[in-house]
Design goal:
five-stranded mixed beta sheet; 2 domains; Cytidine Deaminase, domain 2; about 45% helix; 9 helices; alpha+beta; 5 strands; DNA polymerase, domain 1
Length: about 220
């Protein structure tokens, strides 16, 4: 049940060559990557099912290897590896575009950037955006990893990394794999602890962003900073 089973004028590959990639739907472009479906499901149907399951291309970009492994029809290692490679290239391209912006002082730009980097992790990750005095990105580092419910964060290490990058400001971030982006009391206490530690070396904490699949919360916007 692959692309070759379609009439010649309906095959995405031929359509792309004749009319350009913009002429193809999201499902047709995805079908080109998948190449084959499975018994009873054509490749175009499988592509549409993937898009429906993850909420379109944007949601698919946040899918992890484990997410894809659970999709019937993507059991083969080669097919999943190819799709994961393309998704990672797309994530990196989008992240590169966001990082090239002159300043990282707009909460939405920060949330978009962090969504690409953190939302797909199946475990909790604590990361820091290190910024210069004009809020341009110097580096993003994932400093601590934990279980789904807890991550141990050491203020001294955050301060050391800020000094290493000669950062003037930082944006703190961590993900909630559960999808709940409301910060906990522990999140608020950690923010204040890091804010105090970084203030000793004259580094400002601009925000702490909690990232979940498909959505993020800025603690600065919520008045919790």
């Amino acid at each position: 049940m692959g692309l070759k089973d379609l009439p010649a004028d309906a095959r995405p590959r031929e359509k792309l060559i004749a009319r350009g990639a913009a002429a193809l739907s999201d499902s047709e472009l995805l079908a080109l990557l998948l190449r084959t479906g499975m018994a009873g499901t054509h490749v175009l149907q499988l592509a549409q099912q993937l898009l429906d399951r993850f909420g379109g291309i944007a949601g698919l970009l946040q899918a992890s290897a484990e997410d894809l492994r659970q999709v019937k029809g993507l059991g083969g290692t080669a097919k999943r590896a190819q799709l994961l490679a393309v998704l990672e290239l797309a994530r990196r391209a989008l992240a590169q575009q966001l990082a090239a912006r002159p300043a990282f002082d707009a909460p939405q730009a920060v949330k978009d950037y962090l969504q690409l980097h953190l939302a797909h992790h199946p475990h909790e990750v604590f990361a820091v955006l290190f910024l210069d005095s004009q809020h341009r990105l110097l580096a993003l580092e994932e400093l601590f990893r934990g279980t789904l419910g807890q991550t141990s964060v050491y203020p001294r290490e955050v301060v050391q990394r800020a000094l290493h990058h000669h950062a003037a400001a930082v944006v703190l971030a961590h993900n909630h794999p559960s999808g709940e982006v409301q910060p906990s009391r522990a999140d608020e206490a950690l923010t204040q602890s890091l804010k105090a530690a970084l203030a000793l070396v004259d580094v400002r904490v601009l925000d702490h962003v909690v990232v979940g699949p498909g959505r993020s919360l800025s603690m600065a916007e919520a008045g919790l900073l």
